[in-house]
Please model this.
Amino acid sequence: MVTMQYANYAWEQTAQLLSIDSPTGFTEKAADWVQARFASMGYSAVRTEKGGVLVHLGGGEGNNGLMLAAHTDTLGGMVAEIKGNGRLRISPLGGMNANNAEAENVRVYTRSGKVIEGTLQLCNASVHVNNEYSSTSRSFDTTEVVLDDGVKSAADTRKLGIEVGDIVCFDPRTRRTASGYLKSRFLDDKLSVGILLAFARYLKDQNIALPRPVYVHVTVYEEVGHGGSGSVPAGVTEAISVDMGCVGNGLQCTERQVSICAKDSGGPYSYEVVGKLIQAAKKTDADYAVDIYPHYGSDVEATLRGGYDIRHGLIGAGVYASHGYERSHIDGVFNTLKVLDGYII
Model:
């Protein structure tokens, strides 16, 4: 049975991946890293045309295949306007919320490869100057990127190589506490990529022969809804998204548990698959919760919308403050690995 050492390995891999900026549409370096990590363990890992990573974990080929999906694309921003004062108005990539992004350090990636630092601030951000500071609604029209380069005009900013369409990446601020809490932006869904890397490591270390074909698809456009819409290997009949589990009012799950999603905004998950996931949790003594997510969509729903005839499910370590400064726990990682172990082996 999988042990806590693999949960710790999952976090080590996650922390490395979190250090690589990869908002939707700007994922090549992160995908390169993911592909290399799977290949270093001896797995066949190939790139899809869309830019994702498709891995064969074993079990041969043929019918009754299982695909596990996670995503390495994150929220972020794109330069929408270079303002007359040299500052930047941005357009969000994915569901980045200005209320959560305000006062965060950012990196602007230019087409020439230059990286320029700055901070997303409220326009006129000095409390001692702006008497409407508290009452101003935060949006990407009322906030701006202030560059750390002393620019005073649009011409100054363009001299740095910055143009409309450049990518703006937010500092993840990754850390693990002594009590086992895992805190960072973009645990959604790099924590799950780390979990799948750890599961792959476990299979190799224990020389486990899989009873059915099993694949991993690390997608790169989940945050905009079409990450899992293609690249499903022949013979796959089930697909499970390993994504964040929701934690919040009205839900049972905590950061220390694995969440099994019965339904989200896209509708119910396969009743059969959800039942088997619950059985797997019980079999491995995983601490789990079954919940309905009110505002959520997953890669495997995109797979269904892409026309694939599959059964689908969704699990993940509980994550609090989703799409903000997120928090999970090493126990949630361990419980997720337990469910994968019980379901697949």
Observations:
- Residues 187-205 form the longest helix (19 residues).
- The chain has a mean pLDDT of 98.
- Residues 254 and 319 are 8 Å apart (CA to CA).
